[in-house]
Design brief:
160 residues, alpha/beta, 60s Ribosomal Protein L30, Chain: A, 14% strand, globular, Ribosomal_eL30-like_sf, GADD45, Growth arrest and DNA-damage-inducible, beta a
């Protein structure tokens, strides 16, 4: 009986994580079209420092993707700290390639810094973003993960 309950609860959790992943994808696409994204560690850090009240979500690269780069890790720690202090929803994504697809990085013809997907901020510069159901779902997931598991939630995005 216990084994069946664990299997069912694990399936429900996996299903919920997939739904949150879809909500995150929807949110990032909507935010991109509304010009409500800040992409890259340096740009995100500067924006967060100047406008912390305008940031509603921070998506960071997983630690595995930042291995070996001490400066990048330090910057990400500072960003995490600012998010925690300002009560900004924060999560990690394990698939920067999928993130690049979602925010149309192919459209960005710039320098190396413009291709930095180690941090993406979703800002509330558009009223539509605040009313977005996807944002509510992702924020709820971040809040629950932080309180229940006391850790940063990690989400693996689905390939399309």
């Amino acid at each position: 009986m216990c084994y069946l309950f664990v299997r069912i609860s694990n399936r429900l959790r996996i299903c919920r994580i997939k739904m949150v992943g879809q909500a995150l994808e929807e949110l990032l696409v909507e935010a991109y079209h509304q010009n409500c994204l800040r992409i890259g560690v340096i740009e995100s850090y500067k924006y967060m420092k100047a406008n912390p009240h305008r940031v509603v979500l921070c998506v960071l690269a997983s630690e595995k993707e930042t291995e070996g780069d001490i400066m990048l890790q330090m910057n990400l720690i500072q960003l995490k700290d600012m998010c925690y202090k300002k009560n900004v929803s924060i999560m990690c994504s394990t698939d920067t390639r999928r993130l690049a697809e979602l925010v149309n990085m192919d459209d960005i013809n710039g320098n190396e810094a413009s291709r930095d997907l180690h941090c993406i901020l979703v800002t509330n510069t558009s009223e539509q973003i605040l009313q977005c159901e996807a944002l509510q779902q992702v924020a709820r997931f971040c809040e629950e993960s932080r309180h229940r598991y006391e850790c940063l939630p990690h989400l693996e995005l689905q390939d399309r």
